[in-house]
Amino acid sequence: MRKFLFAVIVLYTLQACNGSDGPADSGTEDNANPSPPLISYNIVRVYPHDTSSYTEGLIWQNNALYESAGSYNESRLFRTNLETAKADKSVKLANEYFGEGIAILNNKIYQLTYKEDKVFVYDLNTFQKIKELQWPHEGWGMTTNGKELIISTGSSNIYYVNPENFKIIRMIGVTDNYGPVSNINELEYVNGILYANKYLTNDILKIDPESGKVLGRMDLSGLLAKSGYKYDPAMYEGNTDNVLNGIAYDSAKNSFYVTGKKWPALFEIKLN
Fold it and tell me: What SUPFAM superfamilies would the database entry show (predicted)?
């Protein structure tokens, strides 16, 4: 009995120490469930990207790219020309804010902040700030299904929230055959499917937005080397700061635009 009680206590302790707001990756494969299939892709074209942008959010709308750049003292929201990467509209955040994911809904741009519990809401056309909302979690990625805003916090949890007051409507947990998948970052909602960067990896995950199950995985390892742009490998290869991050979808072309933090290139890709 004493051994049994000890085992129960150990198990309970391990479970209680399992991360902040969501379960961590289990690392143990469930053989009853197959691994998510690998999704292949083709590079259609390579465009320039602003190397000063620590990319946290990326959206394609109205034939323009909307981007949120992070880092304290450097965070901003801006709109750029795809061909030139030149910004024609921009707003800088106060130095104490770290800009994160963005979403566009009802002619408003919503921008998360990292640990400041703030959401900034801007007019889509003028970039004038309309209001601020509270979000009492870390802000990482954000997208929309056309009704709700969908937010990641760096855990395995994804939250659906009311855009008017940021009250949580429901939550899903992202899982694959190994169990919970943490470090869910930038998000894009496309034709009833969620796509997400997994932070510190070269992966983009295809996720069922109702169950959280990972339906497939894109491996974009070596993508930057295929850009044709000159860059310092020491800044990107093995550097945990300047990693792959940023997914936007162009419905007219059925293409995705992907980039990374301070990358010199942005890629148009098509999934196979």
Answer: YVTN repeat-like/Quinoprotein amine dehydrogenase
